[in-house]
Amino acid sequence: MNKKFQDIVRRATGATEIFKIEDIQTLWSGYGTIMRYGLKGGDRDRVVIKHVRLPDQSAHPRGWNTDLSHQRKIRSYQVESTWYRNWADLCDNGCRIPHCLALESSDDEFLMVLEDLDGSGFPVRTDSASMGEIQLCLQWLANFHATFMGHGPTGLWQVGTYWHLDTRPDELAVLEDIPLKQAAARIDKKLRASPYQTFVHGDAKLANFCFSGDGRQVAAVDFQYVGGGCGMKDVAYFIGSCLHEEDCRRYEVELLDWYFGQLKGALAGRGSAIDPAAIEHDWRALYPVAWTDFHRFMKGWSPGHWKIHGYSEGIARDVLAQLNLENLNL
């Protein structure tokens, strides 16, 4: 980290000294690092620093090394900076996120100085969630979606999620499932046509949630792909990140019932005039469409991925059949 960025951290925290504790993770395709730094003489003991340094060439783990991919990543860090600068303060404890202490960027670098959630009571990460943890994350999503219901995503992705069709032409081009390929635009159009648009987190996988030690609270990180959209995109993607095929099928109704119950309460708590029953009627029907939208991306991006299974294929077949029926009735 260069001296200018070190000075920014000192000014943001009042620290007289900063020192590196550990690398938390390397960013996708070698675009930088998320690190934990210790502080002396400041208003806190530690911060998390997301330091993005754009490489000359990217080496994508799955071979997707194109200028389009590079530009998408640059845009994602610009979006995340805008999120923390202009939107993040609207999040309350119902959709807890790290506080942003400082932002800076140059031609080829981005710096985000963030609250260390570990030190704020959210030290637990898991790659295998209990039903209670899944419900907690869906509660977070419900509160997030309620908070931003009806907002225009100024400065963010106009359509959130990292798999959105308009940003993934390469993956669509190599998709070998021809019926799904031909229906991709109609699937996207159906999701965008919902009258109930909110912000979606855009990468709401289990790995991006941080739990409290007692398992009663959760916070979320990583807002590179936050933007406008139907909340079912987050919900379908999150459930798919937690559960294998049989459990996706077994718990689908139970988890959707839980989410919509939480959304109703979150809307009421924020004084929303929108009828939660109307949102549920619209969005519940779009859950399989959102699932199929991500399934389309996965089959083009990584055809052998474990998330491509019988449950997903069955949902996609049903959605395509429904779309074809709608076309016949036009």
Residues in helices, as a percent range: 40-55%
CATH C-level class of the largest domain:
Alpha Beta
Strand count, sense and barrel status of the largest sheet are:
5 strands, antiparallel
Main structural class: alpha+beta
Summarize the structure.
The chain is an alpha+beta fold. It folds into two domains: 3-120, 2-Layer Sandwich (Phosphorylase Kinase, domain 1), CATH 3.30.200; 131-328, Alpha-Beta Complex (Aminoglycoside 3'-phosphotransferase, Chain: A, domain 2). It has helices at 3-13, 67-87, 131-147, 169-173, 178-192, 232-242, 245-269, 276-301, 310-328; strands at residues 17-26, 32-40, 46-53, 100-105, 109-115, 198-200, 209-211, 218-220, 227-229.
Key descriptive features of the protein:
alpha+beta; Phosphorylase Kinase, domain 1; 2 domains; five-stranded antiparallel beta sheet; two-stranded antiparallel ribbon; 9 helices; globular
Q: Overview of this structure, please?
A:
- With 330 residues, the protein is α+β, with helices and mostly antiparallel strands.
- The chain has two domains: 118 residues, Phosphorylase Kinase, domain 1 (2-Layer Sandwich), CATH 3.30.200; 198 residues, Aminoglycoside phosphotransferase (APH), C-terminal lobe (Aminoglycoside 3'-phosphotransferase, Chain: A, domain 2, Alpha-Beta Complex), CATH 3.90.1200.10.
- Helices cover 45% and strands 16% of the residues.
- It is built from nine helices and nine strands.
- The strands form three sheets. Strands 1-2-3-5-4 form a five-stranded antiparallel beta sheet, sandwiched between helices. A two-stranded antiparallel sheet has the order 6-9.
- Strand 2 and strand 3 form a beta hairpin.
- Helix 3 runs antiparallel to helix 6, helix 3 packs across helix 7 and helix 7 runs antiparallel to helix 8.
- About 2% of the residues have low confidence.
